[in-house]
Amino acid sequence: MTRSLTNKLKRRMVQPLGARLPRFCVHGLIGAFLWVPKCALADEFVRFVPPTFLAGPVISRAAGGNTYSFRGKPPHAQASLSLTQVEVPSTLTRNAIEVCATAFLEEIHRLSFDLFSQKVEYPLQVGPYALASWRWNGTLLSHAKTGVVSCGIIHGRFLAVTFEDNIREAPRSFFSIRETLKSMALGRQE
Asked: Measured in whole angstroms, how far is the alpha carbon of residue 131 from the centre of its chain?
């Protein structure tokens, strides 16, 4: 590749998306992002209004289920919450809830060399359901973090609720997250 072509590509890659797309494409994308979640949430399995310091959801769809991700805004900018619902594999017959939690904890451990996790006695209340919970502490991206991984089987699907924040802010953000999860509705609207 010639040097001028390489330089053009580098300049183009650091430009914001709007500078690289025609104006009608940008407006179309923005309109799609604003319209789709409102329509998609109308008959979703998970219906939830997050605390005001969480923005979202960003919805990731897969054949077996969905993940709803919320990211923190100041003063809880490092907070996050994910709600994942997937079909329970028919091959999974024993310890299904522990298998679900272990999958999430292994992913966190992959990102944190000093992860400590432990199952806690008290379940996480999600709507009318009580989910088994694990608490973890570790360093993620050079920040001391703490979080909760909770799993259960509801209406024949796994529901995994994970949330985290930096250690200093977690007592306040976790209280708000727990309180709002109590009002979450699960199941398709009729």
From this structure: 16
One domain, residues 38 and 1: yes
Q: Are residues 123 and 33 in the same domain?
A: no
d(C-alpha 74, C-alpha 169), whole Å: 11
Give mean pLDDT in consecutive 10-residue pieces for the chain, a chain of 190 residues: 41 39 33 32 65 93 90 93 90 86 92 91 95 94 92 91 95 95 75
In angstroms, the CA 76 to CA 176 distance is: 11
Query: Rounded to 5 degrees, what are φ and ψ at 183?
Result: -100, 5
Nearest to 188 by CA among 158, 152, 155: 155
Number of domains comprising the chain: 2
Q: Are residues 49 and 39 in the same domain?
A: no
What does the pLDDT read at residue 104? Answer: 93
Residue 161 is predicted with a pLDDT of 96
What is the distance between the alpha carbons of residues 59 and 31, in angstroms, rounded to a whole number?
A: 16
Distance (Å, rounded) from C-alpha 125 to C-alpha 129?
Answer: 6
